Amino acid sequence: MSIEFIGMIQTQKVSETHAAQGPAIDRDYVRRFAQAHEQAGFDRVLVPHHSTGPSATLTISYAAAHTEKIHFMLAHRPGFTAPTLAARQIASLDQFSGGRVGVHFISGGSDDEQKRDGDWLTHDQRYERTDEYLTVLRRIWTEDKPFDHDGKHYRFQAGFSEVKPLQQPHVPIYFGGASDAAIPVAGKHADVYALWGESLDQVAELTGRVRAEAAKHGRSVRFSVSFRPILAETEDQAWARAERILEDTRRLRVQAGYSRGGPQQSVGAQRLLAAAAKGSRVDKRLWTAIAQETGGRSNSTALVGTPEQVAEAFLDYHALGVTTFLIRGFDPLEDAIDYGRELIPRTRQLVAERLAAGTRRAA
Questions:
Q1: Any idea what DSSP says for residue 181?
Q2: Residue 320: its pLDDT value, please?
């Protein structure tokens, strides 16, 4: 199982430890951010979606024009664009980028977030809609003749797209969601199922459930886990840096008028808080303090240590079948550059050595 590293780019510098400043879109920052990931050896970068933020689709279009080989992952919420139109838009983006687009479908874990764009479906109804949405998308991408559709959420006649994705049979489908309503949709549609940075036991349990669902459809699924690596030359220095990050996070949240984060609606966030309930340090180097502080918002757990130690921690997840690591730092641009110096190449080396050893044993 080879590995894939995914980073994340945003349209301005912002994180738990950096308050947003300036305009919502900083073109120079986007360009430098995307190019830094390409030079650091990332395979792909995620462009996130927020109900009040810039268009992820247009951000990718801009970043792709200023890079050569790095791939992109578009965060996309079903429900706000008709699936027939979304299929043509995504296929067009894949063509213009030279086949560098994947899509991460997020059904939405927060009612309040969805309502900002006029979506009043309940949590489970959103996943039901996503199932139908992805069924339509995949047909539009692959069918060579127009077809009709009469479903619960979408109805159209003679749906078709003259433009098909450059990648065949279609762009990679990434999918997130850990609820009972989400898992069957993942098993049916996901090429890559994405988890937040949970403990080893949690990852083994959840990936097992998704594998079982995929098997019902004769499918196999790859897995991605998200972390916020905190690196330093020594382990002590890395943990000291983690504590400074926690202090900065608390300070900025107080300045913004936030209390300590309460439980979020999404099951993924609740699972992060369940890991945090076991302590701020779980397994070898999983650090949960930021997740506890923010209420499990976003991918907020970290792996802390030297580049060698964090690479070895990645190997533990790889042994569970995880082949993709989505990593981003609390100093977003600077950390992306730093990950490319040692962490990414060392992890690739360790995985290659493990695979070679397995091949020798099999022979």
A1: T
A2: 97
Q: Which residues of the chain have pLDDT under 70?
A: 1, 259-265
Supply the pLDDT for residue 362.
Answer: 81
The answer to whether 333 and 33 have CB atoms below 8 angstroms apart is: yes
Give CA angle at 162 (185, 64), nearest 5°.
75
Cα gap 323→4, rounded to integer Å = 6
Provide CB contacts within 8 A for 9, sequence distance 6+. Answer: 30, 33, 34, 37, 45, 46, 47, 59, 63, 332
pTM, two decimals, is 0.95
Euclidean distance between CA atoms 351 and 363, whole angstroms? 18
* CATH class, 4-231+299-362 region: alpha beta
Structure token digits, residue 130: 């996503």
Give the rounded distance of the alpha carbon of 162 from its chain centre: 29
**What is the biggest distance separating any 2 CA atoms in the chain, rounded to whole angstroms?**
63
If one counts every other C-beta atom within 10 angstroms of the C-beta of residue 148, the result is 9
Give yes or no for a contact between 351 and 3, defined as CB atoms under 8 angstroms apart. Answer: yes
Q: Where are the domains of the chain?
A: 4-231+299-362
pLDDT of residue 310: 98
For 206, the token pair is 């959840």
Per-residue model confidence (pLDDT) at position 264: 60
